[in-house]
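Hello K.,

You asked for the raw outputs rather than the summary table, so here they are, unedited. I folded two proteins back to back in the same session to keep the settings identical. This is the first:
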Amino acid sequence: MFGFFVIAFGQTQNIQLLAIGSSLPLGDIQMKDISGKEVSIKNAAQTNGVLVMFSCNTCPVVIRNQDRSKMITAFAKQNNIGVILLNSNEGGREDGDSFRDMQSYARKQGYHFYYAVDKDSRIADAFGATRTPEVYLFDYNGILRYKGAIDDNPADARKVTRIHSKEAIGEMVNGKAITIKETRSFGCGI
């Protein structure tokens, strides 16, 4: 694993980046889902693995890419890959990213998967996640196979030439080597 330093609110934090081939960290940690139940990433996993997406209600990039997020989560579910979105935006809990705001946003978007509070950004820190939206695809053994952006053009859906996360899911469930294992995510900072 590689480490880097992030300056946030005048403090330096050592964030470890989760490397491709790493095991799922903190998979049993219980988090409050919009249903009010406590869930974990392992609870979300299905036969072929789990797709973890760091998201929120307020990031303009998340909002602009909502159709793409719903498309990739539906594709994951069609391929027996569980889905969990995590809201790690502790700084926004009083301003649009509260639990109640998450419930309302999920209802409006028609979410049919877990959307949970990552309290104190514990999971985001363990993954090295820094952006919303940012995806992590784990196989049925809990091994990280892909991480990064949903596709190659978060700024303009009309100019997308490759949906990285969809390709990774398809290759993984078909037993193929994943062509592009890591991409740079683009979005709002966690």
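The second followed immediately with the same parameters:
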Amino acid sequence: LTLITATISALIATIFAIPVAYILSRYNFPLKNFINSLLYLPVIVSPIALGAMLLIFFNTPIGTFFETHFFRVVFEVKGIIFAQFVVIIGLAISLIKSVFDQTNPVYEEIATTLGAKKYQTFLYNLIPMSKKGIISCFILTWAKAVSEFGATVTLAGATTMKTETLPVAIYLSFASADIHTGVIFILITISIGVSIILILNSIYDKNRKPKF
């Protein structure tokens, strides 16, 4: 469940973040600094507070209408994905924006002078040059989604064998004094973290030139 929900939420966040990060990186408009500041809100605000805000939202007429006419979120697996998405979306946009900021726009300008349209420079110049950065962003947001607990347990609950992600399983194990199972889940979490670090290091090591 943890792997599936984290993959879905990280994939949605990455796809959503790419065009938003492009706009924030390449264009100037009113309230741009304010929007950039909002991206760090999930980092500053407690995940439990974010989950509580989502829970309150889905108890408003708008949230109730959404659950009635589309799909249920509160105390459901979809709530896990929704909570993970809210926690990681700011991080995803910030990371991809940093990648775009560091990509020289001169290549896009040259392509434009040769007759390429904006969407073509975006698809065939910027995205290929930023590919490794985007992949790294996906991996980091995926790892963040895997470890997310506060917003998930507040919005989706902690129901065994239903909304029991890996962090929730650790919490339930220690709550029931099942230390052995809790330690196993902790070791799995550490293994995932170490694997993520090794993968990211391997990605960046390929970009490093040997020193003579």
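The chain has a mean pLDDT of 86.

Happy to rerun anything if the numbers look odd on your end.

Regards,
P.
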